[in-house]
Design a protein that fits this description.
Blueprint (H helix, E strand, L loop, with lengths): L2 H19 L6 E12 L3 E5 L5 E3 L1 E2 L9 E8 L8 E9 L2 E3 L1 H7 L3 E4 L5 E9 L7 E12 L2 E6 L2 E6 L3 E13 L4 E17 L5 E18 L1
Length: about 220
């Protein structure tokens, strides 16, 4: 990810934290990091200057740059709602067009491999299992996607970050609370992203990408 985008995303996350910190000053807080296996089903590709086609996607989660995420969570325990929370979640998801897609489109290169880059604000609900350290949870949210658009075709090459559009998020998982400060979790997380970007020669590209991920991560609580 380039320096400019890192600054933009860091600024957005910091602004979100500052905006939420005052009303949630008495909340339990946590920071989480995670990775996992992410995939995406086929999606229809609309291109303004050539026939539409269907893309088959590969996730390649463990290839550089890898799939990963960072999440800040505020549980409103001291506000009388101990099982309700709010999270700000950044995910570096990615997809690569498979060989069949490149052959159909006659493109040499097509991927969002330096990230679809999802930033979402989510509402969470947790359901501690009494007498155990297991804490199931679920969440829904919405936000934005910032893909790195990589297209190479006969008319030119595109390789840049752009604002893609809106993203919806759903997740369900279970955490294991080792102690007051540390927990680990596994979850399913799905994101549906509407991507509308520019490519070479003044053309536009539109698609909707559903990413499915099985994540494992750790959280620090304070």
């Amino acid at each position: 990810m380039n320096t400019k985008l890192r600054i933009m995303l860091s600024t957005g996350i910091a602004a979100g934290i500052l905006a939420l910190s005052a009303p949630l000053a008495n909340a339990e807080m946590a920071i989480s990091v995670y990775g996992g296996f992410q995939s995406a089903p086929h999606s229809d590709i609309e291109v303004s200057d050539q026939p539409d086609f269907t893309a088959g996607w590969e996730g390649r989660s463990f290839e550089m740059p890898p799939y990963y995420g960072v999440r800040g969570t505020w549980w409103m325990e001291e506000l009388g709602q101990p099982n309700l929370g709010v999270s700000l979640d950044f995910t570096h998801a990615k997809v690569y067009a498979d060989d069949d897609t490149l052959a159909k489109s006659t493109w040499d290169h097509f991927e969002f491999s330096d990230g679809i880059n999802l930033l979402t604000l989510n509402a969470l609900y947790r359901m501690p299992i009494e007498g155990t350290k297991f804490v199931p949870y679920a969440g829904l949210g919405a936000g934005i996607n910032v893909p790195h658009v990589e297209v190479t075709r006969a008319s030119g090459t595109t390789s840049e970050y752009q604002f893609g559009g809106a993203t919806l998020q759903a997740q369900v998982g279970v955490a294991y609370q080792f102690n007051d400060n540390w927990s680990a979790f596994m979850e399913y997380k799905g994101n549906y992203s509407w991507v509308d970007v520019d490519i070479d020669s003044g053309a536009t590209l539109k698609t909707s990408i559903l990413t499915n991920a099985i994540n494992a991560g750790v959280s620090f609580h304070w």
